[in-house]
């Protein structure tokens, strides 16, 4: 996509509201100060004071910030050209904003904001993947009926991977596997016999001799690396959540419900994430997965980027590309094409311009309901347990996630992960079993649950393609 025409035109400024001014939101606020045609004068967080502090942190002068608690205050501040800090979206919902960027990461709050923004006639750049994984297709359909767009956001992996997948499809490339690297690299120090991951150093004496794939069989090496690093987390709910969004946008499935998540060096990916017949670990092609980027200190990171592994057709072409430095598998049958970056709020402006100026999503035009991210018990849970969600990864202690074929909510069907979160169990659940909808004490006032039920209704009425 050539974005040159969006910048420096001077004929239109896109006014935005950012909800959730943490890491992503704060970097987006900073972009609003430097990107021509982008204005981010409205910030919403849990309190107006938090939002105001975020505005100050990106260099906005105290005299230019107004903490607003009523709609009249917000309108006056807007008319005065001030930056507005609010503790509730309803305080600013009537302002002439084109795009609401929802970045709270809270499933219930995000569902509420997305719904209210659509009702206010605003486009929604939906950073909160938790909401998208439960009801994204339904939200997109609802927005379309209201004449606006709900879109995933450039800068985060789902949008970037959707773009890479569709680019490869346009070129006629056969996609064997598509995915991303996990959030944190596995940085192996062979002299110390340690792996550093997410700021924590782990002793891994059994990893000696496993740092390079060499001539080893890929399935064997993947299994040995996993066993040697058993103390490190090798599945993360956010990774599966992001792949669920891509699955619903692109009509793809995982090769296995919890993904393979191999530990692999960058140059090993096309040799590992390919079919077993080609020496890899996959049973199927056209699937989604994630890898942990294995590297040594000082080596380049994949930086949480995205990739496609494609079939190498026409040997002469791929020999040329190999000579140009492209990453091919050991046998030359598959190759990896990749984007080694995701810049979070620093890239979100492109999505804002896409939806506000061109009227198109950075994701799928009409995402379908192909996959659900569901909750699975890793240990026995007695009835009455509250499934508290927390931490940076928005995880539930003792509960993992799996990607399964999409299905309507029903008592005996597995519960979507973020519908199960923060709910009380109505019945015992044994280790290894999915947490089913009938196992939960449901709150019918839940905005997220309402959105999902509305999505199911739309599917039943055949208004939304799957």
Provide a brief overview of the structure:
By secondary structure, the chain is α/β, with parallel strands linked by helices.
Helical segment count: 13
Overall pLDDT metric: 95
Radius of gyration based on Cα positions = 23 Å
Largest sheet: 10 strands, mixed
Structural class: alpha/beta
Percent of sequence in beta strands:
15-25%
Low-confidence stretches: none
Q: What is the overall silhouette?
A: globular
- The counted number of beta strands is 21
Distance between the termini: 27 Å
Provide the helix percentage.
25-40%
Descriptive report:
With 466 residues, the chain is of the alpha/beta class. The protein is built from 13 helices and 21 strands. The strands form four sheets. Strands 8, 9, 10, 11, 12, 13, 14, 15, 16 and 17 form a ten-stranded mixed beta sheet that branches. A seven-stranded parallel beta sheet has the order 3-4-2-1-5-6-7, with helices on both faces. It has a two-stranded antiparallel sheet with strand order 18-21. Strand 5, helix 4 and strand 6 form a beta-alpha-beta unit. Helix 5 crosses helix 13. The longest helix is centred in the first third of the chain and has 17 residues.
Q: Which descriptors would you attach to this protein?
A:
466 residues; 7-stranded parallel sheet; 10-stranded mixed sheet; alpha/beta; globular
Topology, element by element:
Blueprint: E1 14-19, H1 23-34, E2 38-44, H2 48-57, E3 65-68, H3 71-79, E4 83-86, E5 99-102, H4 107-119, E6 123-126, H5 129-145, E7 150-151, H6 157-170, E8 175-181, E9 186-189, E10 194-197, E11 200-203, H7 218-228, H8 237-250, E12 253-254, E13 263-264, H9 269-272, E14 287-295, E15 306-311, H10 315-323, E16 327-328, E17 334-339, H11 348-358, E18 371-377, E19 389-390, E20 395-396, E21 399-405, H12 417-420, H13 447-460
Parallel strand pairs: 1-2, 1-5, 2-4, 3-4, 5-6, 6-7, 8-14, 9-14, 12-14, 13-14
Antiparallel strand pairs: 8-15, 9-10, 10-11, 15-17, 16-17, 18-21, 19-20
């Amino acid at each position: 996509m050539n974005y040159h025409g969006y910048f420096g035109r001077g004929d239109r400024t896109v006014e935005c509201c950012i909800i959730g001014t943490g890491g992503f939101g704060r970097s987006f606020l900073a972009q609003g100060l430097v990107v021509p045609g982008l204005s981010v004068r409205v910030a919403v967080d849990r309190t107006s004071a938090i939002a105001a502090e975020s505005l100050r942190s990106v260099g906005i002068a105290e005299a230019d910030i107004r903490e607003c608690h009523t709609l009249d205050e917000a309108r006056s501040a807007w008319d005065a050209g001030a930056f507005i800090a609010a503790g509730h979206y309803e305080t600013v919902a009537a302002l002439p904003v084109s795009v609401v960027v929802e970045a709270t990461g809270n499933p219930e709050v995000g569902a509420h904001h997305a719904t209210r923004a659509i009702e206010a006639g605003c486009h929604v750049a939906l950073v909160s993947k938790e909401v998208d994984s439960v009801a994204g297709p339904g939200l997109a359909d609802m927005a379309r009926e209201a004449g606006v767009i709900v879109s995933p956001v450039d800068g985060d992996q789902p949008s970037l991977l959707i773009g890479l997948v569709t680019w490869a499809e346009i070129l006629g490339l056969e996609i064997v596997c598509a995915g991303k690297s996990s959030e944190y690299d596995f940085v192996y120090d062979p002299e110390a016999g340690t792996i550093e991951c997410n700021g924590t150093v782990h002793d891994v004496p059994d990893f000696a001799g496993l740092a390079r794939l060499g001539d080893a069989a890929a399935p064997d090496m993947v299994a040995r690396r996993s066993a040697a690093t058993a103390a490190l987390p090798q599945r993360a709910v956010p990774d599966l959540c992001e792949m669920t969004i891509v699955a619903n946008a692109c009509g793809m499935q995982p090769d296995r419900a919890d993904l393979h998540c191999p530990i692999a060096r960058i140059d090993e990916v096309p040799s590992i994430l390919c079919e077993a017949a080609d020496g890899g670990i996959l049973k199927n092609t056209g699937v989604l997965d994630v890898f942990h980027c294995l590297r040594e200190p000082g080596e380049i990171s994949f930086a949480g980027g995205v990739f496609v592994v494609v079939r190498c057709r026409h040997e002469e072409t791929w020999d040329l590309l190999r000579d140009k430095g492209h990453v091919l598998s050991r046998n030359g049958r598959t190759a990896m094409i990749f984007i080694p970056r995701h810049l979070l709020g620093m890239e979100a402006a492109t999505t804002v311009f896409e939806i506000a100026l061109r009227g198109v999503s950075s994701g799928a035009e009409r995402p379908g309901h192909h996959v659900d991210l569901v909750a699975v018990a890793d240990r026995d849970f007695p009835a009455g347990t509250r499934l508290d969600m927390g931490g940076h990864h928005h995880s539930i202690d003792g509960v993992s996630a799996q990607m399964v074929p999409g299905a309507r909510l029903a008592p005996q069907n597995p519960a979507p992960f973020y519908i199960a979160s923060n709910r009380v169990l109505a019945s015992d659940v044994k280790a290894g079993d999915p947490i089913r909808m009938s196992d939960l004490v449901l709150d019918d006032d839940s905005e997220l649950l309402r959105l999902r039920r509305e999505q199911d209704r739309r599917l039943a009425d055949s208004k939304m393609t799957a």
